[in-house]
Design goal:
Length: 331
């Protein structure tokens, strides 16, 4: 990593096998616009203005019509735990290719601002973003809940087939693209297991409102917890908040409360929630849940795209209202 000055080279050492050291990312991506901010860095939309020619290091000019997401993580002298965690996450993600899982497609170093850039598919929004619009009267129809759940189950079934548990399934980590496809993101808490090592783990991770209760009570079977978390996310899609949101996080119950309007939802949805929240010893796998009648009732992509358009209309209305409130006129 000779192209990096002393401390930058040192902090990047854990990730040297994953970084494309031969490319200045600003020759590939331009017109960055911040779209999200997190604890570890910001996410930008960016236009693709160049690509690396296959078999060479030459840059091929692109017209900029394609847009991707770039996560920018600041580098600091001495390094950070986030970079060490990224090594584990990238090592894991190198094994994963699935249409319902958000992949990290490239890693670069932006020397102009001492940042690590991670290229990903640009997604429309998170499920959590959609649920926040409930204050404007937005609710997810049951058919959309079923379709989103089906996508997530496909991701979880695939992960289980290669011995991986996500351990942080929740609305913030379920992203939807413009085609209406849900993709599971953020594998920072994921773990692997093998038939030899087994799936028993210790230590609770993730966020307590979506956390399987057995994670808080000693050793647990990691292959079972994602189904519980998905069930909690289904409960959240119906209620717009996760279960136990008003409880002391140190004293979260082990059983979900009933839905506030149970009559609005089908018997198959109630049965699905019951299956997800069953004891680990009898809790169905993601693959088993794909055959349930609730999942078979998914609405399909065109209707999901219409719902996404409704979300955009609501957001536009909010922005116009905020403009009036701040300026007295619509700008």
């Amino acid at each position: 990593m000779a192209r990096y000055r002393g401390w930058v080279s040192e902090v990047l050492t854990p990730l040297e096998d994953f970084i494309d050291h031969h490319v200045d990312p600003r020759e590939l991506y331009a017109d960055l616009q911040e779209i999200a901010e997190g604890d570890s860095g910001s996410v930008f939309s960016a236009h693709v203005v160049g690509s690396v020619n296959s078999g060479s290091k030459d840059i091929k000019r692109e017209n900029g019509s394609k847009v991707v997401a770039i996560k920018s993580i600041p580098l600091v002298p001495g390094g950070s735990q986030k970079l060490i965690d990224l090594k584990e996450e990238f090592s894991l993600m190198s094994r994963i290719r699935h249409e319902n899982i958000l992949s990290m497609d490239g890693m670069y170093v932006d020397l102009s601002e001492d940042c690590l850039w991670i290229k990903m598919e640009l997604m429309e929004r998170s499920l959590a973003d959609m649920l926040q619009l409930s204050e404007e009267g937005f609710m997810l129809p049951e058919g959309v809940i079923a379709q989103f759940t089906k996508d997530t189950l496909h991701a979880l079934a695939y992960l289980a087939s290669i011995g991986i548990a996500h351990r942080d399934v929740r609305s913030d980590n379920l992203l939807v693209n413009p085609a209406g496809v849900i993709k599971l993101a953020d594998f920072s808490h994921a773990v692997q297991w093998t038939s030899k090592s087994g799936a028993m783990k210790q230590g609770a991770v993730g966020v307590v409102y979506w956390q399987a209760p057995e994670m808080r009570h000693g050793p647990y079977d990691a292959s079972k917890v994602d189904v519980w978390s998905l069930g909690a996310t289904c409960w959240e899609m119906a209620e717009t908040d996760p279960p136990f949101m008003d409880e002391d996080p140190r004293r979260v119950p082990d059983v979900w409360p009933p839905l506030s309007q149970p009559e609005k939802y089908s018997q198959s949805f109630h049965e699905f929630l019951s299956l997800c929240s069953s004891q680990p010893s009898v809790r169905p796998s993601a693959n088993d849940l794909l055959t349930t009648s609730f999942i078979q009732g998914g609405c399909g992509r065109p209707f999901v795209q219409k719902v996404l358009a409704d979300c955009k209309d609501i957001e536009d209305r909010i922005h116009r209202r905020q403009s009036v409130d701040s300026q007295g006129t619509i700008s």
